[in-house]
What does this fold into?
Amino acid sequence: QVQLVESGGGLVQAGGSLRLSCAASGRTFRSYAMGWFRQAPVKDREFVAAISWGGTVTRYADSVKGRFTVSKDNAKNTMYLQMNNLQPEDTAVYYCATSRVTAVQAPQYDYWGQGTQVTVSS
It folds into this structure.
């Protein structure tokens, strides 16, 4: 079993920044890739970013490339998502999840957190 807890969400104005954290416990954190997904109201959950177990490989959705950065601190069992130049279309609940590969598709992830709300005002 793996437990994931997201934090760091909130309300920010367009152009602002937030850093999300995903704290993991239960399974050996460093052995698994991890990802961030988001879901806006009446929309499907979409991939945002992923990072390999060693932190050397990252993948991003086109919509966030150049603005978001994913990182991982295995010593702290924590993954981060630094989000800069936030826009209203980034408003969503953000979820972290674990996977055996650095995947972009939600079905390849097994454990999920409860999510943290990010709201960007214009």
In short: The longest strand covers residues 18-25.
